[in-house]
Structure formats: C-alpha cells, structure tokens
User: What shape does this take?
Amino acid sequence: MGWTDHVEAARLALPAGARTTGATRLRQAGLGVGDRWPLHFVIEGDHHLALDGVFLHRTVKMPPCDDDGVTIEGAFVAFCAESRLLDAITLGSVLLNKELLDLALLDQILIEEKWRRGVPETTYVLPHLEGRCRSIPEAELLTYVVFAAMPGPEVNRAVELRAGVQLTPDLWFEDYGLAVEYEGSHHQDDRAQYNADIDRYALYRRHDVPYEQVTKERMRSPKATVRWIHAALVAEGYDGPPPVFGEQWESLFRPLAELVRPPRAA
Assistant: This one.
C-alpha cells in the first residue's frame, strides 16, 4: 500500500464525518511538508478511536472542509499549531505563491474562530510570509537572510543585464549587484534544467554579474549559509553589520506554540 492507500483506509475506518487535516491534508494537495505519520484527521464531537498510525483530533465545530479534507486554510491553521516558526513561514509563503491559500478565507477563521487550536500561531506567522517564493527551499533561504538581520533582497525579480537580456535570480541584492541562486537536486537530475542553468550562469559571467549558488547540502548548515552570503556581499562593498544569530534567529527553530505562549516560570 502507498501513502494515499493508507489515507483512504483510515477514512473508511473512521466515522463518515472525519476529514484529513494538518500535514496530511497538505500532502494530499501535493506539498511534502510535515511528517507522513501519523495521519491527521479531525472530527466534530467527543469521539475516542484508537487506530494505528492515525491521530484523530476532536473539535466542537468542524473547520471549513470539502469531501477530501478540511480546506487549505484550515489545514494551515492546524499545521501552525504544531510546527516550528521556520516551517510555517516557508509553507505559508509557497501556499501564497501557488495561490492555494486564500487570505480572506484564512482571516475569516482567525477572526471568527479565535478559540480554534492554531489560530494564535497562525496570526503570529502571517506577517513573515513572502508570496514571491516559488519553493520551500527558496523561502527557507530568504527567511535565514531576513532573520539574521542581513540586507533584505528582492525575490524572483526580473533583472535586466542589458537591453533584451533578463534573468530572474532567486534573491537579488540590488545595492550590491549580487545574485543568489538555490540549487536543489532537480538542478542536476533534470537535464533540461541542468542545461538551462549552464546558460543562466554563463549570462551572469558574460555580463560581470557576481552570483552565489547555495546547494541543498549547504543549506543543512543555516548559519554557514548566511555567513557565505555575507562574505559575498562584503566582497561587493557591503560594510554593514555581520549576521546576528541571536534571539530572533533562534526563534526560527522553536515551536510556534512556545513563541505565542511562553512557558510560565515555575
């Protein structure tokens, strides 16, 4: 059985009113976020069922839903209830970019159902979303730069190298003429993408535009990634403060629930 088969099996084993939620619903929409297991479902009322690999959330009122699961807006709220700040920012940014997240419908939940689990966390994360990010890694890279108090770059903005020649860097530091590009696995595996990248970077070099490539492997060390970008900026004339890895930075890796409800002193 594949993952979708397990979801369908769980649906058949649960009461008819149960719907997928959180990371499970988001994975149904094609977003590889959160853990695959346990499967998350929600149901209205005080139902107590124990199924292997299934977490059944109970609520006094079902969030907006369709035949497949709760709406993407409802699933995002449920996701934020359990996620780190970084994961919520990157997911929310991509949902906006793909036009999967309707802010008006999300606001309706946040305003009319303040009691719902995940609402404070979602409200906290909303100001940090950037809808110009086209992928989770792009959004992650931007978030690292912003939360380290580095100069804010343009995101996926067309840059004219000369008349009729444009490129769209993932991150573009206008004041320093520096492009930063994320290189995921598909940049090597997809031959069309691989050849397009060769042409892309040749254009940067031909027009004397400095650029840095940030690979998936480099992103495994967030601080090192930011220091790498800082060094590239310095080489292009940046003389501002270095990256700051203080409280704001550390908040990225903490659960949102801790940020909106700090633990009380004993």
In short: The two ends are 48 Å apart (CA to CA). The chain is about 45% helix and 15% strand.
